[in-house]
Design brief:
The protein is of the alpha/beta class. The protein has ten helices and eight strands. The protein is globular and about 45 Å long. Residues 70-318 form the Xylose isomerase-like TIM barrel domain.
């Protein structure tokens, strides 16, 4: 997820080796190097325990009020919703009460899996960073009041050069985690593939390890893994317990990776992304979180909103079935 559209600095060899020698390494890999397989269900299918979530970016062009988005997610069959904090702010500015919204979520049996905001928490400028921390605290309060316990922590404000010192980023992320721990809301370190900072899986791994906090976790995205030049197999170094939400989408083969933009994203299964490989790796490392559909394609604004939401859920389910049922058959 990123509202705008360079390549980032690289880790040293020592830093990389430090990453792969830590507890973030997935515990599901056997001595023979093959990941252990999950148990089969009574139907013979793998049962990874994925949940299905609607990131409201997918339907934001339809301009539904947040309460209506919750109703839509429930009606279509999503387990959860991932709202943008701007929507929550708009709801409050219009006189809405978070207690009422929480009851609506509970009545609809829809959970807040995460939330998307853009606080400038990692930047070097002290004043800007302080504002970013204040924004994150405010948005964490909202999420907690809605019954949620996670929020995205992207490289907002650091999309363009200069490249930041990852050790300082790790220190700032640790501070953010401490605040989150006191509020019951965990910030998830998010990568943006086109960013000068935190564009690759390896950079996220370094920050998660270096911060030294037990709540350290990441928020990854099919599109951003590709856009940043990371290989999907790189996900194997992560423990699934450190991943709670994973953004689902797909992308076409053209434009090329360096020029592709968020608006080029398509429904899972309609592009060339290695979704089967990614979903199998997620299963193998013990990911049991939410697959959250996040799209920004302007063409979908021309389609009726329920059709978009329903097709999105079907496409994610189909991708999971293709990846896991076929292998276990």
């Amino acid at each position: 997820m990123h509202p705008m559209e360079t390549s980032s600095g690289t880790l040293s060899r020592r830093g990389f080796l430090g990453v792969v020698g830590t507890a973030l390494i997935a515990p599901h890999v056997s001595l023979a190097g093959r990941a252990t397989q999950p148990a089969r269900s009574a139907t013979g299918d793998a049962s990874p325990g994925f949940r299905f979530c609607l990131n409201t970016a997918t339907i934001r062009s339809h301009k539904l009020p947040l309460p209506d988005e919750i109703d839509l997610a429930a009606r279509v069959g999503y387990d959860g919703i991932e709202p943008w904090t701007r929507e929550i702010e708009e709801f409050l500015q219009q006189g809405g009460k978070l207690a009422d919204l929480r009851k609506r979520l509970q009545d609809a049996n829809v959970r807040v899996e995460s939330a998307i905001g853009f606080p400038t928490w990692m930047v070097d400028d002290d004043a800007q960073r302080a504002r970013g921390f204040d924004q994150m605290k405010r948005e964490m309060e909202w999420i907690a009041e809605l019954g949620g316990n996670r929020i995205a922590a992207p490289p907002a404000g650091a999309y363009n050069p200069p490249v930041l010192d990852l050790k300082r980023v790790a220190e700032r992320y640790a501070q953010l985690l401490e605040i989150g721990q006191s509020m019951g809301v965990t910030p998830q370190l998010e990568i943006w593939g086109g960013s000068a900072n935190l564009s690759r899986l390896s950079e996220a791994a370094f920050v998660l390890v270096e911060c030294g906090h037990p709540d350290a976790c990441a928020l990854f995205d099919v599109f951003h893994i590709y856009r940043g030049g990371s290989r999907p197999e790189g996900l194997r170094v992560f423990n699934g317990a450190a991943l709670h939400v994973f953004h689902m989408n797909d992308y076409p083969g053209d434009p090329p990776r360096e020029k592709i933009r968020d608006s080029d994203r398509v429904f899972p299964g309609e592009g060339v992304a290695p979704l089967t490989q990614i979903l199998r790796v997620l299963r193998d490392i013990g990911f049991h979180g939410a697959l959250s559909l996040e799209l920004f394609n302007p063409q979908y604004a021309k389609v009726e909103v329920e059709t978009v939401a329903r097709r999105g859920l079907e496409s994610v389910r189909e991708a999971v079935k293709k990846a896991l049922s076929a292998e276990m058959g």
